[in-house]
């Protein structure tokens, strides 16, 4: 299917969304296996449990007796009621990570109750546009609003009425939630489901063809590509491949070549180029360890540059740690998506 399209359907009973360009899967999001599982971005009123000094944190009881892990901050004590936000998905039996510095994310703005001031995305270079956005914000919220706000790069070509509406709605939502801090553990605001995520994060939504239904992924030609994501094997071409394996401790990536048709450097560069997308489509995060094909140490800088370039344009935050003494490459990737 030519052009840009977005498909929404079910995959093994879970709602899912796919961003597709010319028949190729560009992005993919899916709901949790369990409908009760905390979703990254969800905001809860919770109760602090016993503090764990060895882990420098405490478990917090959420809705339905579920628990999340919160790193300790001043003033926390067992039994205290607090508002928290889920920052990572729950994987391998681990409790999801929580933060008290909640952020209300929307299409054009992020409202930040604990980070005062107005910030405009650095990607918006035009000073006139930046000035107009600042004036709009002050006209709606006044000069000294109670919360902070980030105006996203999506504001660049957006209609002013849409931005204004988004500011008002997101701000009002933040006020309602932040005032609801008393009571038993309860879900105050759920995380984004696939359709919400597409509206918020995929600017292509406004111009793409939207396909919905049981066979939506087949209609846009990506069902087999989505099915392949459940496999560890990723074809790199010219007899090369990589395997992405999930363990309880980390994600391991093994780069291989069969027959030595291409040089180790070229294969490793290709692996570095496609790795962010393959991790993103699978919803993978945490510690990632990559075993590249062995090559001279003086060529590692080229791999560093390729990885930095590839992860810089990826939508999921990652931190490149570097090479170990054993010749492996380590990185940390935020677990902000639901794992396939």
Q: What are the segments in which pLDDT stays under 50 over at least 5 consecutive residues?
A: none
Biggest sheet strand order reads 15-16-17-18-20-19
Quantity of strands, as a count: 20
Mean pLDDT across every amino acid position: 90
How many domains would you count in the coordinates?
Answer: 4
CATH classification class of the largest domain:
Alpha Beta
Work out the radius of gyration: 22 Å
The CATH topology of the largest domain comes to: Translation Initiation Factor IF3
- The helix count comes to 7
In whole angstroms, the N-to-C terminal distance is: 24 Å
Describe the main β-sheet briefly: 6 strands, mixed
The helix/strand class is alpha+beta
CATH architectural category of the largest domain: 2-Layer Sandwich
Kindly state the percentage of residues in helix: 10-25%
Shape: globular
SSE order, one letter for each helix or strand? EEEEEEEEEEEHEHEHEHHEEEHEHEE
Strand content: 25-35%
């Amino acid at each position: 299917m030519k052009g840009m399209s977005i498909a929404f359907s079910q995959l093994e009973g879970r709602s899912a969304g796919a961003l597709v360009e010319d028949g190729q899967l560009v992005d993919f999001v899916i709901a949790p296996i369990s409908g009760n599982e905390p979703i990254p971005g969800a905001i809860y009123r919770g109760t602090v449990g016993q503090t764990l000094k060895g882990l420098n944190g405490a478990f917090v009881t959420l809705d339905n007796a579920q628990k999340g892990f919160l790193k300790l901050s001043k003033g926390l004590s067992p039994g205290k009621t607090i508002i928290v936000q889920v920052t990572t998905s729950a994987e391998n039996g681990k409790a999801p990570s929580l933060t008290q510095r909640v952020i209300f994310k929307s299409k054009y703005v992020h409202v930040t109750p604990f980070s005062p001031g107005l910030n405009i995305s650095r990607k918006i270079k035009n000073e006139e546009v930046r000035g107009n956005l600042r004036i709009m914000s002050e006209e709606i919220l006044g000069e000294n609003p109670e919360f902070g706000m980030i105006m996203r790069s999506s504001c660049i070509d957006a209609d002013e009425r849409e931005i204004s509406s988004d500011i008002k709605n997101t701000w009002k939502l933040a006020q309602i939630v932040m005032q609801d801090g008393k009571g038993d553990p309860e879900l105050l605001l759920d995380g984004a489901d696939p359709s919400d995520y597409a509206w918020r994060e995929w600017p292509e939504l406004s111009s793409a063809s939207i396909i919905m239904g049981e066979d939506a992924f087949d209609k846009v030609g990506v069902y087999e590509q989505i099915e392949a994501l459940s496999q560890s094997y990723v074809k790199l071409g010219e007899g090369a491949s990589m395997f992405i394996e999930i363990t309880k401790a980390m994600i391991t990536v093994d780069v291989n070549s069969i027959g030595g048709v291409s040089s180790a450097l070229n294969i490793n560069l290709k692996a570095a180029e496609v790795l962010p997308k393959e991790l993103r489509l699978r919803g993978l995060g945490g510690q990632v360890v990559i075993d590249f094909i062995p090559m001279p140490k003086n060529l590692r800088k080229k791999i560093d540059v390729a990885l930095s370039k590839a992860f810089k344009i990826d939508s999921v935050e990652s931190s490149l740690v570097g090479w170990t003494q054993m010749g492996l490459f380590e990185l940390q990737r935020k677990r902000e998506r639901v794992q396939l």
